[in-house]
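Quick one:
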Amino acid sequence: MKNKSASFIAQAGIVAALYVVLTLLSNAFGLASGVIQVRISEALCILPCFIASAVPGLFIGCFLSNILAGGVIWDVIFGSIATLLGAIGTRLLKKHRYLASLPPIIANMLIVPFVLRYAYHIEGAIWYFMLTVGAGELISCGILGQALYTAVKNTGIFKEEVKE
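Output:
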């Protein structure tokens, strides 16, 4: 049992580290935050389909990324919660490949616009922020996430693999 726990923690740590690195890479190109954001790291939100350890890994990775990117406290808290909720939803929908991308898209689309408006005081309508954040999440989670799903499934790198 100890080996399984160590493996879970190691996998979660690797997912968190990948999330941080990919977010900082996105941030270098001005894509990780703001009204229009396409975090490459959000593609990793598909990983709960394969491993449960991705759920805490994504949460911790997002939390650290938001701190390192200079996010305000409300962004660190609520942005990370949005990613956690999305990861949990993806895990629950792990047997439904295409539906599994929806929870992180929806969670971020519903939470992040309020962070932009009230934590960062960005002028604009919440519905507009929902559209822009949703579009970015559709690109990251929907398109890039599905490409990652295919790559992971084809390599079979996780033992806890989903059967379609």
